[in-house]
Amino acid sequence: MSGQSVDSELDETAEDSFRNRVSVFLEANCSRTGDRSGTIGDDDPEGVATAKAFQGSMADAGLAGLAFPSDFGGAGLTNRHQELFDREAQGWHLPTTPLSISHGMCLPVLNQFGTPEQKARFMPDNISGASIWCQMFSEPGAGSDVASLSTRAVRDGDEWIIEGQKVWTSGAHYCDYGILVARTDPSMPKHKGLTMFIVDMRQPGVEVRPLRQISGGSGFNEVFFTEARVPADWQLGDLGQGWNLAVSMLMFERVSIGAGGGGLNADRSPGLIQAAQALGHSHDPVLRQGLADLWIREQIKGYIGQRIRAAVAGGRVPGPEGSLAKLNGALLARRVRDVSLAIAGSAAQAWDPDDAGGDRWAVACLSTAGISIAGGTDEVQRNIIGERVLGLPKEPDQYKGAAWEDIPRS
Which end of the chain has a smaller Cβ tally under 10 Å, C or N? Predict the structure, then answer.
């Protein structure tokens, strides 16, 4: 990957030394997953401030952005170091969920497509957690078909003026910056008239409105742009190349959801095993079988992650394997939900009002469905796998090659 450190072999002594360093850090700064048994989904009880403080301590310890260049705030190590870290972190709760998109999507795109000046300005604070980023693709009229988006960017001297609306933007209410895809040439076919930009989320002309979810949370937002301005040198990649960058970013998102490290994608079986023991279910043969199946599938997820890291180490942006990881992650989340509800029993539906964390099982269950939508629906992933892995024909598109402005819209 452009600008990223080159992998090298680590001898056994070096690996042991690094694992010990990670272990010491985790012991000092984290709690075991079992301390929050039963919690799945996208909520982070500690909040944004805790995530930023934790990430700052990671940076101070030289453990943040392990495989990113030291010139841009990373540790300048290798993908093998990241793999060792992820293995060592299994079973620990890392309070980094608010950073999952910032690090899982925005940081890799900045590293791959940003100019040296953009990398020097934005990557160190991103890696350390001093700033948090979101991505803005989906719109009310452009969900799974992101390329049909209508948010416009018009050049005005040394700036671009942004007008339009985005929706389902995770974390926009606490983010400092965002990566936006907007239409810069409506006379081109929908995939070719798009450009990607870095946007200051705190500037005038950017309004964030939370969307209330069935779980009671509001992690998603609508974002409205009214004459919001973006400096010309905050354009990411070439003019009109926004779709190519967006595809790369979506692949990073799918990898992050399906095979990434950190709290969002941590193995759940250790905590659920502890919960089953604590609630007296450890001898239930059906539940034991479900937990064993879950553990096996989490190991498979780890192997998918290794395959993807090998692709990245070879200089490739994840391709269809990102869709495999994302689809597997969504299916795995449903397995976690089913086992969790079997363990919780009636506690997943009713709990003592004095129990501050009593809703954790219910919230986790309700949050699971969203994983099948985020980063592209399960159906989209199956289409990608069918076309790019199995070689099946694409669905017909009567407007292929037509100018975006000439395509009818409801």
Answer: C
